[in-house]
Amino acid sequence: MSEFEPQIVAFFCNWCTFTAADLAGTSRLAYPPNLKIIRVMCTGMVDPKYVIKAFLNGADGVLIGGCWPGDCHYINGNLKARRRVANLTEILKQYGIDEQRFWLRWIAASEGTMLKEVADEMTEKLRHLGPSPLRSLGQMAV
Amino acid sequence: MATFAQMSFQKDGMNKELGAFFKGMLEKGAVDAVLVPMAQPKKGIRLSLLTSPEYTGRVDPFAPIAAVSGAKIASSLTARPSGRRLAMVLRPCEIRAVVELAKLKQVTLDDVLLMGVDCLGRYENTDFAKFQEQGGTSESFLTNALAGKTAASDFDIVGACKICEFPAADNVDLRLAAIGAGSGTVFIEAVTSKGKQALEKSGLQPGAAPAGRDEAVKKLTAARTEARDKKFSELRKEVNSFEALASKLSACINCYNCRVACPVCYCKECVFVTDTFRHTGDQYMLWADQSGALKLPNDTLFYHLVRMTHMSLLCVGCGQCTSACPNDIDLMPLFRTCADKTQARFSYQAGRSLEEEQPMAVFKSDELMEVTGQVK
Questions:
Q1: B255: how many CB neighbours lie within 10 A of its CB?
Q2: Domains, in order of start, for chain A
Q3: Contacts with B358 (C-beta within 8 Å, 6 or more apart), sequence order
């Protein structure tokens, strides 16, 4: 039985983090394939429902990557995202999903290396933490 | 600056005196209408919109029942206001929900005189019917409850009330004060200048403040707070995993009555009744294939988690969710314990102040640095 490989659902904003992921690619910086990247226009459009759905479907981690405050293409989408993440983290924490599994990180378009570092960091941390407690719920997690 | 007017009554005379007060308010033009719990012609007590002094004899503001949250009624009456001055006689949890709804512009307080009734608890609707059949009255309830006995023959006040730390309402113009008032007495307290004007116009003479009122309220609040902390700690021990949460919600059938009953569930159209959740046949098949079997209706745990995300920051702990559940799921402690954490995260308390902005309605450029843990 091979070692546990965490499944991480990543929501990256088009303008910054997704571009950083592109830069990491063109710079040939290898980062783990554990990230399943979903491109959104802004972290401000990441509805908490997407995060909840990801965890209910057994995701071991969820990563939201966006522009640094002040640099949001839509001015303040990332600030709204930060409040929503704080609220949702408080809720999920009570039932066993905490900040170790649910990350919000600012990664600018030029920060390809940081993208690689965050991906490495999260994957490694989750490898040690183990599978999500929701994986064993299976049929109950509806 | 509070002004108190004492209202004394003989046994079984409380509602008669209160009726006379509201009659005075209507006849002397302090207000054009009153939203107040009233005895219905056949059975029961319901909030009623009273415009004629003729029916004031049937008012019953201290009745231990809130068939639906008065905040929802307040919203239906004032979201698109009539322009007529309205007095709303509501319990503390309803007032706190009104404060939250006012911030969402679903309640307009411009032509409203808010009157908060001291609340010692409410019975479930079916229990209240039994209570009335057994001869119980608001007076008998108040006398017993103020002495610490809220239970009747084989039922008690609802769980939410046992742990409610707000027996007296804040953010009101007037209070109907029974706690610390002494037997055979109720005080009408004018809290704001608007309330004082209405009190004077109604013809009641202001007098001395009830001695021991503050202390009595503090004592009751402290007892309830202790009960609340105990309940929270028990619940948190029991429900500390998604498995335990799913287990608690195993009787849920997605009827969404808890959502209908909740005064602060504010969405005009809930996402769960939109196309987003009208899944296609092959989507269901796909999910069923993934685990071998799929409970239907699905999106049960999902629905409750989303409701927590949307309204836990505004939860006032009224317990209408538990009252509304057809399958007797005790939702109130689940939502209150969640609300306790989420509201604390933003140093927010639902219903505390009209000036306090709701946490998801505002944002700052530098705050919550610990969420990302990154410094530029």
A1: 13
A2: 8-129 (3.40.50.960)
A3: B100, B103, B104, B313, B314, B348
Q: Which of A60, A82, A84, A87 to mutate to test the interface with B (most CBs of B within 10 A)?
A: A87
Whether A85 and chain B come into contact, CB under 8 Å, resolves to yes
Interface test with A, best of B305, B312, B367 (most A CBs within 10 A): B305
User: What is the residue whose two structure tokens read 């698109």?
Assistant: B80
> pLDDT per residue over A109-141, tens digit each?
999 999 999 999 999 999 999 999 999 887 766
B33-83 pLDDT, tens digit per residue, is 999 999 999 889 999 999 999 999 999 999 999 999 999 999 999 999 999
Q: Taking phi first (over 0 means left), then psi (-120 to 50 degrees means alpha), and beta for anything else, what does residue B164 get?
A: beta
Exposed, middle or buried: residue B254 (CB in 10 Å: 0-12, 13-18, 19+)? Answer: middle
Give the other-Cβ count within 10 Å of B205's Cβ. 8
Interface residue A90 vs chain B (CB under 8 A):
yes
Classify the C-alpha dihedral B272-B325-B318-B159 as positive or negative: negative
Rg (CA), chain B: 22
Compute the nearest-CA separation of A91 from chain B (Å). 6
Helix ranges (H only) for B239-364 are 242-248, 257-261, 281-291, 300-311, 320-324, 331-345
- What separation, in Å, do the N-terminal and C-terminal C-alpha atoms of chain B show? 51
CA B27 to chain centre: 29
**Residues near B64 by beta carbon (within 8 Å), at least 6 away in sequence:** B120, B121, B122, B123, B128, B131, B138, B141, B145, B157
Closest CA to B358 of B313, B304, B316, B310: B313
| Structure tokens, B337 | 């314990």
* C-alpha dihedral sign at B224, B230, B233, B237: negative
In contact, B38 and B48? CB cutoff 8 Å? yes
User: Tell me, what DSSP letter sits at residue B207?
Assistant: B
ipTM of the complex: 0.96
Q: Is A88 within 8 Å of A51 (Cβ atoms)?
A: yes
B286: contact with A, CB 8 A cutoff: no
Whether A95 sits inside 8 A of B371 (CB atoms) is no
Q: In this structure, how many other beta carbons lie within 10 angstroms of the beta carbon of residue B138?
A: 21
SS3 A8: strand
**Cross-strand bridge partners of residue B45:** B39
Please tell me whether the overall predicted TM-score, pTM, comes out greater than 0.90 for this model: yes
Q: Are B97 and B69 in contact (CB under 8 A)?
A: yes
Q: Do B243 and A133 touch (CB under 8 A)?
A: yes
Residue that has been written with the tokens 């040939």 in this structure: A28
Q: What is the pLDDT of residues B330-350, one digit of tens each?
A: 999 999 999 999 999 999 999
Question: Residues B74, B89: contact at Cβ < 8 Å?
Answer: no
Contact (CB, 8 A) for B50 and B33: yes
